[in-house]
Design brief:
Chain B: Keywords: Oxidoreductase, Thiamine pyrophosphate. Chain B: It comes from Novibacillus thermophilus. Chain B: Its cofactor is thiamine diphosphate. Chain B: InterPro entries: THDP-binding, Transketo_C/PFOR_II, Transketolase-like_Pyr-bd, Transketolase_C. The structure holds 2 protein chains of 2 kinds. Chain A is of the alpha/beta class. Chain A has one domain: Rossmann fold (3-Layer(aba) Sandwich), CATH 3.40.50.970. Chain A is built from 11 helices and 7 strands. In chain A, helix 8 links the parallel strand 6 and strand 7. The radius of gyration of chain A is 19 Å and the shape is globular. By secondary structure, chain B is α/β, with parallel strands linked by helices. Chain B has 2 domains: about 180 residues, 3-Layer(aba) Sandwich (Rossmann fold); about 130 residues, Rossmann fold (3-Layer(aba) Sandwich), CATH 3.40.50. Chain B is about 35% helix and about 20% strand. A 7-stranded mixed β-sheet of chain B has the order 3-2-4-5-7-6-12, sandwiched between helices. In chain B, strand 13, helix 10 and strand 14 form a beta-alpha-beta unit. Classes of the chains: A alpha/beta, B alpha/beta. The interface between A and B is large, with 46 and 46 residues.
Chain lengths: ~325, ~325
């Protein structure tokens, strides 16, 4: 890790809290689903927290992200209000999309979140277009384009990386390789070891990162952002990580073993950060637990806010189809 | 007023809108030095440079998606798809992304983009370069759909499309590019959702789109000699549709023939017929409404076969005679 890319210590408590917020947000969704309190479907980010938080750590509201099927983590890392997120998932009018978007479409364009996406690979051309805006309007900002390993086999990935590369657009393509596209293991769906190798096909750098290591993600994305802002074009970063839960709520996870899950849970990105904080003497157990419970409380408050919110008015059903 | 071609009218609209608003730009395959597959953007590269006349790789999904992404973040792209058949390759970005962003995001986004694309048959280009797929996109809430038939209309409607805050699919008919018409040099905008009565008549209303407007006008001339007075209504935009003008015309004439080049089954003509049947015009109908539309086959190559698939002036004349009985 290059020194200038190192994550400053004073940022760590805030980023740790974000990781806990993501963890508790999605654990709560999981629990509420089990109780039948949420309808539809959802895709949980538990286990991948270091990617979203590390990548988004330096972004401002003027930078953009596009997200994936598994979007809650990116949303929180981009600074979304968990109350409005929870309200959206409960289909309430106080939600980010007034109950019209749901889990897969939470977006807030005014703060640079161009949305989760119900189409695998659907956000990649959009991120490229947002980067084109930044380039044409000469804005000193960047787009982070999150997508999963599954999306790397979609045509939109190839078309977009090529377009962004030839136009040297300020976008960082962040592939979150969580080992499975639904039930399809990366071992079966790719004939290459690292998706990052595909950068070479478009003449852009491809980097493999430990996606469970906040510091590693941060450093790599920071360098890619600097490169993008300098007009040198996109970078492909592959973050190796693991989704602890199934693909969605209907997933019995027959395609993987308990041993494998156990192995990855041992690489918990949050515990890893906590261990670092303790071993480097920056924090004691008590401080860590206070951060964890503050996050947990915010999620409980979000549930209360969402539950107490009004349902959307069906008379507004035709609103916002057109501008 | 001077007379220019439909092609020149499209180019003028693009040029004027790019001069008016620095956020308007154009991208597409071979639009730069080549000037576009149908020569629409010829000369624009010299005028505006490669930043604003952006040649893209052959990548329709990326073109449509990048247009959506740049529109939602503050630009106003005009994306050219070389043939409207290729919209299929960019369909996810158009249908699942651009069309729905505003609604899915609770109204907190605008997607001001135009996808311009040549459609229709009659050029001998066979099944993958001759289709009229406008009903596909008209079916999707969130998209607007335009089908101009004259040089005057195409300039005014394209300006409206560029200034619209929604994704607009703008169909230009290949056979119309060389047709000429009177077009003002000054700025004018034709609002989307306003039909045009291309010819007034008393006995029967023909609702026709794009190339079929011209065939319907010829059919009307033919029938005038027999004492049948035909009114020709051109909706110009399918979404939004000017229901009022169509309904009022049918109330006046009591008879209606709907004509489009697209395949009949599932075509937009069915929507126009339903609009009439569901309205007060139903009580004024003196005969069942007839549809004249493309045959339900992929476009064949042979000119001899192609002319059997695309509705002809004779087909329109025959349908009008049918409803006059």
């Amino acid at each position: 890790m290059k020194a200038q890319s190192a994550l400053p210590d004073e940022r760590l408590p805030e980023l740790l809290e974000q990781m806990w917020l993501i963890r508790y947000f999605d654990e709560k969704i999981d629990e509420m689903f089990a109780k039948g309190l949420i309808h539809g479907t959802t895709h949980l980010y538990v286990g991948q927290e270091a990617v979203a938080v590390g990548a988004c750590a330096d972004l401002t509201d003027d930078d953009y992200i596009t997200s994936t099927h598994r979007g809650h983590g990116h949303c929180i890392a981009k600074g979304a209000d968990v109350n409005k997120m929870m309200a959206e998932i409960l289909g309430k009018e106080t939600g980010y999309c007034k109950g019209k978007g749901g889990s897969m479409h939470i977006a807030d364009v005014s703060t640079g979140n161009l949305g989760a996406n119900g189409i695998v690979g659907g956000g990649i051309p959009i991120a490229t277009g947002a980067a084109l805006t930044l380039h044409m309007q000469k804005r000193d900002n960047v787009v982070l384009c999150f997508f999963g390993d599954g999306a790397a086999n979609e045509g939109s990935f190839h078309e977009s990386l090529n377009l962004a590369a030839i136009w040297k657009l300020p976008v960082v393509f962040i592939c979150e390789n969580n080992q499975y596209g639904m039930s399809g293991s990366v071992k079966d769906m790719f004939a290459i070891a690292d998706i990052a190798e595909r950068g070479a096909a478009y003449g852009i750098p491809g980097t493999v990162v430990d996606g469970n290591d906040l510091f590693d993600v941060y450093a790599s994305v920071k360098e890619a952002i600097a490169r993008a802002k300098a007009g040198e074009g996109p970078t492909l970063i592959e973050c190796k990580t693991y989704r602890w839960k199934g693909h969605s709520k209907s997933d019995a996870k027959k395609y993987r073993t308990r041993e494998e899950e156990k192995e990855w849970r041992a690489k918990d990105p949050i515990r890893r950060l906590e261990t670092h904080l303790k071993e480097s003497g920056q924090m004691e157990e008590g401080d860590l637990r206070r951060i964890e419970s503050a996050a947990q409380q915010k999620i409980e408050d979000a549930v209360k806010f969402a539950e107490e919110s009004e349902r959307p008015n069906p008379e507004e059903i035709e609103q916002d189809v057109y501008a | 007023m001077r007379t220019i071609t439909y092609r020149e009218a499209v180019r003028e609209a693009i040029r004027e809108e790019m001069n008016r608003d620095p956020n308007v730009y154009m991208m597409g395959e071979d639009i730069g030095v080549y000037g576009g597959a149908f020569g629409v953007s010829r000369g624009l590269l010299e005028e505006f440079g490669p930043e604003r006349i952006r040649d893209t790789p052959i990548s329709e999904a990326a073109i449509v998606g990048a247009a959506a992404g740049s529109a939602v973040t503050g630009m106003r792209p005009i994306a050219e798809l070389q043939f409207s058949d290729f919209i299929t390759i960019g369909m996810d970005q158009l249908v699942n992304q651009a069309a729905k962003m505003r609604y899915m995001f609770g109204g907190k986004a605008k997607v001001p983009m135009v996808v311009r694309t040549p459609s229709g048959g009659g050029t001998g280009a066979a099944a993958q370069h001759s289709q009229s797929l406008e009903a596909w996109v008209a079916h999707v809430p969130g998209l607007k759909v335009v089908q101009p038939s004259t040089a005057y209309d195409v300039k005014g409607l394209l300006k409206a499309a560029v200034r619209d805050d929604n994704p607009v699919v703008f169909y230009e008919h290949k056979l119309l590019y060389n047709t000429k018409g009177r077009v003002p040099e000054e700025d004018y905008v034709i609002p989307l959702g306003k039909a045009d009565v291309k010819r007034e008549g008393r006995d029967v209303t023909v609702v026709a789109t794009a190339m079929m407007v011209h065939k319907a006008l010829k059919a009307a001339e033919t029938l005038e000699k027999e004492g049948i007075s035909v009114e020709v209504v051109d909706p110009r935009t399918l979404v939004p549709l000017d229901k009022e003008t169509i309904v009022q015309s049918v109330i006046k004439t009591g008879r209606c023939v709907v004509v489009h080049e697209a395949v009949k089954r599932g075509g937009y003509g069915g929507e126009i017929v339903s609009t009439i049947v569901e309205s007060e015009a139903f009580d004024y109908l003196d005969a069942p409404i007839q549809r004249v539309a493309g045959r339900e086959v992929p476009m064949p190559f042979s000119t001899h076969l192609e002319q059997y698939v695309i509705p002809s002036e004779d087909n329109i004349v025959a349908a009008i005679r049918d409803v006059m009985v």
